[in-house]
Amino acid sequence: MAEITPQPPTINGSCLCGTIKYHITGSPALKILCYCQNCRKSTGSLGMANSIYHRSNLTISQGHDTLRTYKDSATDSGSPVDRSFCGNCGSNLFCENKEKGPGLVIVTSGTMDLEDGQSWQPVMEFYCKDKKTWLETNLETKKFETVPAALENL
Ligand SMILES: [Zn+2]
Ligand SMILES: [Zn+2]
């Protein structure tokens, strides 16, 4: 009889229009909220709610040709961020900061199609100095005024 090994939970996701589809396997290295100005501008909202994964855990299964990348070099920390989004509907999907997190990819939690038993909850908050005073997360998170020097090994 074949041994049944538990499958790592796969999270599926897509952009708003559904052109770009992806899946991620394994556990994220980190789940973060970031309130920096660039995350606010980029989303047009309060900030970003992201999971950080090792690049090898992410598979873009559909819509590569529609994925556009904006090279955001005007970041507060000085290290450029590649922000990838759907060229059709504009959903923010992935970010990469090759200086702070080489080999890592940042996946937006809002594009994840979480199934029963899957949840998303942050463990850290970046750029709390820019967080709206009325925004209370009511969670035990590790809070940073800005951003830690490196994303790995936090
Ligand atoms: Zn789209
Ligand atoms: Zn940010």
TrEMBL record:
UniProt similarity note: Belongs to the Gfa family.
Q: Which PROSITE patterns match?
A: CENP_V_GFA
Keywords from the named record:
Lyase, Metal-binding, Zinc
Q: Supply the InterPro entries for this chain.
A: CENP-V/GFA, Mss4-like_sf
Q: Which organism is it from?
A: Aspergillus oryzae (strain 3.042)
Q: What is this protein called?
A: CENP-V/GFA domain-containing protein
- Superkingdom of the source species: Eukaryota
Task: Give the Gene3D superfamilies listed for this entry.
Answer: glutathione-dependent formaldehyde- activating enzyme (gfa)
* Classification of source organism: Eukaryota, Fungi, Dikarya, Ascomycota, Pezizomycotina
Sorted alphabetically, which Pfam families does this protein's record hold?
A: GFA
A GO MF label: carbon-sulfur lyase activity
- In what residue span(s) does the CENP-V/GFA domain sit? 11-121
